[in-house]
Amino acid sequence: MRYFDPKILASEITPQAVFENRRDLIKVAAAGAFGLALAPWFSREALAANSDKLAATLNPAYAAKDELTPAKYVTSYNNFYEFGTDKSDPAAYANTLQTRPWTVSIEGLVKKPVTLDIDDLLKLAPMEERIYRMRCVEGWSMVIPWDGYSLSKLISKVEPLGSAKFVEFISLADRKQMPGVKSNIIEWPYREGLRMDEAMNPLTLLTFGLYGEVLPKQNGAPVRIVVPWKYGFKSAKSIVKIRFTEEMPKTSWSQFDAREYGFYSNVNPQVDHPRWSQASERRIGDAKGAFAPKIKTQMFNGYGDQVASMYSGMDLKKFY
Ligand SMILES: Nc1nc2c(c(=O)[nH]1)N[C@H]1C(S)=C(S)[C@@H](COP(=O)(O)O)O[C@H]1N2
Ligand SMILES: [Mo]
């Protein structure tokens, strides 16, 4: 089956809201009115002028009604420590990342381990656009149209064994391409993990694009995970390995400080991080900037209907 038709322009398949938003963005850029008030990262180009379109169909069942975060912010205010720890570092330095050739090896407790070329992985299932709220543990959030398909579609193909209880995601760590890997802030490669039911939850998105275009490198090209009911760090970028395990995998952030970063890390306004309150958040890109009122953080980032049952009976203060 063919999922891509280069003749279909993104303009035909991208939801209207996304387009309205893009137009507004262009207007803002053209006006250039608040040049001085803008953060330095605002002025960068949003998506590369020659970036490739990804044909994706909006899935209305997964389209948050929240106002979208303009692409400029999504692509210039990032956490991607492989390229430095400043929010502006990934957009400035990720251009050295080589996204082809790229393979993802799927290994561990599965019947059919396989190493897939990224271009085959792209075609494994129809590409959907999902509008997800994303919240970083640092207290900021965005609303992003992501393009991909449910990770469960890939998982079913490799047939996990009954003993597989967790899934580990491992990012590329190449000093030649990633200047941040020379520093020892966290243990490389970046690793994250999910429990099997979390990985199989239809919300968990294997992600190849945003705003109808292939992922910008700073957002984790060519493939990343997006887990919208958990803090941003659970959504590992630029993945090269997916491993099925019996034991709960060690993650880079829990190794950094287990008290600050638990394995579950569900968005939870009632459980504060030792350094940042989780009760409220600031939407990046709000026209009011630093004066924008903070909004209340929702339990499971507002995805409770779809995920709460996975944690029934679990003490979420203990399993943070
Ligand atoms: N490999 C890798 N993945 C990563 C990170 C990282 O530093 N390295 N940062 C995480 C954090 S803390 C957040 S908030 C999100 C940010 O994703 P975005 O820049 O696309 O918004 O990516 C997550 N995935
Ligand atoms: Mo984050």
Radius of gyration: 19 Å
Biggest sheet features: 8 strands, mixed
Helicity range of the residues? Answer: 10-25%
The CATH H-level homologous superfamily: Oxidoreductase, molybdopterin-binding domain
Number of helices: 9
Stretches where pLDDT is under 50 for at least 5 consecutive residues are 1-46
Q: List how many beta strands DSSP finds.
A: 13
Cα distance, first to last residue? 42 Å
Per the CATH scheme, the topology name is: Sulfite Oxidase, Chain A, domain 2
Residue share in β-strands: 15-25%
Question: Based on CA inertia axes, which overall geometry fits?
Answer: globular
User: What's the CATH C level?
Assistant: Alpha Beta
The count of domains is 1
- Averaged pLDDT, please? 87
Assign the CATH architecture.
Answer: Alpha-Beta Complex
Order of helices and strands, N to C?
A: HHEHHEEHEEHEEHEEEEHEEH
